[in-house]
Design brief:
Elements: E1 2-4, E2 11-14, E3 20-22, H1 27-32, E4 36-39, E5 44-47, E6 50-53, E7 63-68, E8 74-79, H2 81-86, E9 93-96, E10 109-113, E11 126-132
Parallel strand pairs: 3-10
Antiparallel strand pairs: 1-2, 2-5, 4-9, 6-7, 7-8, 8-9, 10-11
Length: about 140
Amino acid sequence: MTSTCLCGAVQVTIEATPEFIHDCNCTLCRKTGGAWAYFGSASVHVSGTTVTTQRPDRPSPAVDIHSCAACHVTTHFALSETFRAANPEADQVGVNMRLFDPDELVSIEVRYPDGKGWDGVHPFGYRREAFTISETSRW
């Protein structure tokens, strides 16, 4: 599956359909507009120029958020250098599934983690029940 940012300057290709999408309500996800599907880095191909940012409210942010350098739409995140150094086995890229047309996402489950209420230590809860995207139940 391939999609682009709003202006088309950044193209994101994923090699497989995700099992689920996280539509989280934490500050990072809300303010970047991200709804994430997770992949190993070898399964995500990005072309075009992106700019990165990290959370300013964390001493060691776990991810670098990538956005198109031209239109500034959030495209994906990659694990930060600091996080990878502390967790060398970690290999994850989050792709903003809002880039993709909803018609391409039929049969994918959308989950709603309560990131806003998460303490960062224990497993997070969910703020509402998941649903599966269908032709009659759009996301």
